[in-house]
Each structure stands twice: as C-alpha cells, then as structure tokens.
C-alpha cells in the first residue's frame, strides 16, 4: 500500500473525528445547561 492511497482515508478519518467531537461537545454543553 502506497502512502498516497492512505492519505484520503486518513483525511476522511480526521474530518469525521472532528465532526463527531464537535457534535458530542455541543450535546454535552446542551445537557449541562439543562
């Protein structure tokens, strides 16, 4: 497997992780404010 093949997968994983973290953070903040 070449590094070029892994780059798009790693990029997608990072973007997905950031989105999930943002969603979880917003959810926790909304829950704590209640």
Termini distance? 49 Å
Strand content: under 5%
Q: Helical content, roughly?
A: over 70%
Calculate Rg over CA atoms.
15 Å
Characterize the biggest β-sheet: none
Structural class assignment: mainly alpha
Individual helix count? 1
Compact overview of the structure:
By secondary structure, the protein is mostly helical. The protein has one helix at 3-33.
Describe this structure in words.
- The structure is a single chain.
- This protein is mostly helical and 34 residues long.
- The protein is 91% helix and 0% strand.
- It is built from one helix and no strands.
- The termini are far apart.
Describe the secondary structure blueprint for this structure.
Elements: H1 3-33
Attribute tags:
single chain, 34 residues, mainly alpha, rod-shaped
